Amino acid sequence: MTVARAEPPPGNTARFAAQPLSGGGTPTDVWLGARRELPTLDLAGCAELVVVAAHPDDETLGFGATSAMLAAMGVTVAVVSASDGGASQPGLSSRQRARLENVRRVELRCATSALGLPEPISLGLPDGQIADHEDRLADLLTDIIVGLGARTWCAATWCGDGHPDHEAVGRAAAVAVERTGATLLEYPVWMWHWASPDDPAVPWDRAYRSPLSASAVSRKHIAARCFSSQLEPATAGAAPVVPPAVLQRLLAVGEVVLR
């Protein structure tokens, strides 16, 4: 199933590529010290939720606490991971990559359980090449959403987040909600790294902040620690995929969506 698409908004892959995670990015205290006030996301408007991640951990780091709160309110939640994240560690053999993909699927199940969510759906698209399978992803998401109710939210990685896979997932989700009548919310993950509080590349006029409870935040912190393959060095002397300062920032800034 395909539909004609509007021209997608410009992405921010060059911005993200110019600031490797090892470089630190925008400090946490810059975000926390910003005076920007955002309207509060009204969670009562959601009856069913589909959370779409490019890789295992995006759903937790970008939208985990909100998902946990909605599930606790009785909302039916489905977590969909477009890829299994096998390209997060470069230079792996085919066997090593398959092993890492399996590890990351297990980590994702651990995280969704910690958030109080059901078993996730893994679509198995190739990590790092999701844009090449964007139409297929849009079809798969349409099939997942189409039978749900009118007050369904689809929360996906932002189409301007900077990582090519994140942006492809956001574009595919936009097509799926256009077909089904669901409401699209886009959550940033890497925006917190390369952007700034007044960055014109971020559509702040569409931004809402989730009203997170202490228990939901606690669940998110526990769930984030499930992803040890990303948080711990793969070999002695190597840097972790997600450095400690990057994780600390993602856990400190709260959760924001664009809608």
Q: What keywords describe this structure?
A:
single chain, 259 residues, alpha/beta, Rossmann fold, five-stranded parallel beta sheet, two-stranded antiparallel sheet
What's the CATH architecture name?
A: 3-Layer(aba) Sandwich
Number of helices: 10
Integer count of domains: 1
Unreliable stretches (pLDDT < 50, length at least 5) are: 1-5
Terminal CA distance: 25 Å
Structural features, described:
With 259 residues, the protein is α/β, with parallel strands linked by helices. It has one domain (37-258): LmbE-like (Rossmann fold, 3-Layer(aba) Sandwich). The protein is 40% helix and 14% strand. It contains 10 helices and 7 strands. The chain has helices at residues 13-17, 28-33, 58-72, 94-114, 134-145, 164-180, 191-194, 214-224, 228-231, 244-252, and strands spanning 48-53, 76-83, 121-125, 152-157, 183-187, 207-209, 256-258. The strands form 2 sheets. The protein has a 5-stranded parallel sheet with strand order 3-2-1-4-5, sandwiched between helices. Strands 6-7 form a two-stranded antiparallel sheet. Helix 3 runs antiparallel to helix 8 (214-224), helix 4 (94-114) runs antiparallel to helix 8 and helix 5 (134-145) packs across helix 6. The model is unreliable at 1-5 (pLDDT under 50).
